[in-house]
Amino acid sequence: MQIELLVFIVMLGAFLLGNFLLKLPVSISMIMGAVLGALVAGEGFPLRHLFEGTFVYIDTILIISTAMIFMKVIEKSGAMEALNVTIVKRFHKIPAVMLIMLMLMIMFPGMITGSSTAAVLSAGSIVAPVLLLMGIPAPQTGAILAIGSIMGMAAPPVNIPAMLIAGGVDMPYIGFEGPLLFLTIPGAIFTVLFIGMRYCKNLNYDEIIKNLNFNMNAKHGFKLYLPILTVLTLMVLTRVLPTAIPNLGMPLIFMLGSIVGMFTGEKLDFISTVKDAMNTTVPVLGKLMGVGMFIQIMTLTGVRGYIVISCLGLSTVLLYVAIATVMPAFGAVSSYGAASVLGVPFLLALLSGNQIIVAAALSFICSLGDLMPPTALAGNYAAQIVNERYFKVLRYCLIPFTACI
Question: pTM for the full model?
Fold first, then answer.
């Protein structure tokens, strides 16, 4: 047995042991796997490499942190609740359009944070009661929330698996918007119409509006949406007019949007909002730091090169089978880990194609790993919101999941 394969087995085994048997957090389990891998490879305790690995994804960590602060600000200001009411009020006569708009609302937090968990816990908890009132049963509602949050996670502008894959081959995260929208928007529309449309033919609008809060729109009006418009405008202008407007960077754009949100809706304590946001996002940031250490040690010990060479040796058929099965299955451990450990070798094995399109597709498949048990972050949180067991929800995710793959 080659030493690189032995080291990889030890690293992966230590991670699985820590995460599933010892019930340690994913981040700690990855650190444990990295340390044991270095010891088996004869590298001792490589403190410098572990430290460097912690900061491999510092740009992504800053984006997620500031995006989560922005998300909490607009949630507490009442903007998300007001948007929910507006969608129901404007589109209740056309159930198909209303379902699509609600699906886009579920996706929105994931699009700006890169986290399916953020999407489920924020927009998902607001949209779920409306879907239930429309007559969609709880398991199907949970499936819509789960798939919608994953489509948001994979959609632009913030797709963390795509960032990880691009970073692994020193490719800038530029030009991904079109391919990712082409993948996620049709997937989201198909899912919500396939699962939910059959239950919405006789929509009882009067029953729905009894359970909605119209006070936010009446009290604050259009200014509730100014933070969202600020962020979207700055994102567009910095790309359309790069010579006239300097590239502010995503973290600064989200912070500017958060500051605007302080004065456009309900009064909120900015410090407590920031604390709340960071408490929510710390597990995700920990995962990124753990993944960074894991990948750094894989590179140090030659494991990463071994995986790349092994992937290059696969036939085309086996390569596509591995992408369609192994990548989402690895997502049961961590979709970010799947992107870093498997996404980069698979991209290198497909260098003959357009790298941006290939990386976008691989990141999309990695994101779907958030549905895979036992961790299944998106699925488990969606099931909790609708008070159902996860496997009942998963049953209705299978066809959309397969279609997306």
Answer: 0.79
